[in-house]
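Recall the central idea of this unit: under ordinary conditions, the amino acid sequence of a chain determines the structure it adopts. In this exercise we apply that idea directly, starting from the sequence alone.
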Amino acid sequence: MVTLKELRQDELFLPGNASCPGCMLSLAIRMALKVLGPNTVMTVPACCSAVIQGYYPRSSSAVPTLNTAFAAAAATASGMSAALELSGRGETSVVAWAGDGGTADIGIQGLSGAAERGENFIYVCYDNEAYMNTGTQSSSATPAGAATTTAIRGKAEPKKDVPAIMAAHGVPYVATACAAFPLDLADKIKKAMSIRGLKYIHILTPCPPGWRYPTERGVDVGRMAVMTGSWILYEWQGGRYTLTGPSRGLLDRSRRRPLADYLRMQGRFGQLGDAEVARLQDELDARWAGMARRLEGGAGRGEAGPGE
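Accordingly, the structure predicted from this sequence is:
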C-alpha cells in the first residue's frame, strides 16, 4: 500500500485552478499525478477536467495535456502511446482522463476498441454520475433514483457498470476507487503503471453542486458511499475480483451502513419516499450477493461483474 511518505511533495496539479469549491475531482487528479509523476502525458476530452485545468498558457496541469473531442479520449491515448513507443519513450505514462459522460456514453466505442487492440495506457473515468459541466443532465452512469435536470423525478434506469464491461474485454487490470480514499486510489494508480496493456480505473468523485450537498462535505459523502456499500472498492486482475480498502469488511451486510444514510446526505435523492429507498436497498444487497459469488468463483473473461 502506498503511504503518505511515499507521495511526491511537489504538486503537478496546481492550486488556484477553476474547479468548484469542494470539488472531489480535483482531489482525485491531484493524488493521481502525485503517483504518476512528471514523466506523464494526459489526454482529456470535453468534461469538467478540461475546464478546471485552465487555458493555455496558464494551465493548472504541470504535465503535457492534450484536450480532445468528447468521444476521442481512448483513440487519442492510443495514438499518443504508439508515438511514444516509436520514439523510444515507451516508459512515459499515457493517461486518458475522462468523465462518466465521455466514458460510459459518448466515448465508449473508442474505449472498447482500444481494449480490444490491447493498447498500452491507463484510462481513468472520474465518475460524478451526470454531465456536470453542462448542467447536471443524466448520463448512463447516473444511479437509479437520482434527480437531474433531465430526470426531475429521479432516473428510472440503473447505473451502467462500465468496470464490468471492461473486465468482459479481458483487459489486464480493472479497479474502482473513490476520491475520499486517496491512498487506495494511489495504490491502484501505482499498480496500473507497472502493467502493460490497457488499464481501467473508475473513480467515484462526488460533486457538490450536482449532488446538492454542502461544499465541505465531499469527503464525508464519498466515505459514506463506500461504507454503505453503494460504491464497492475492488480490483479485477487475472480473472479474479479482490475487495480493497474498507470494502473488504463489508460482505457481511450487518457491517454496512444503511443506504438511507448516504441518500439523505444529498439533495438529488430528496424526492424519494421510504418505499423507494427500501427498493434501492434491496437492489444494493443483491449487488453485494453478486459480488460474493464473483469472489468465490474467480469470475473471468466475459462473466458478469459485481453490478449484476
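The longest helix spans residues 274-297.
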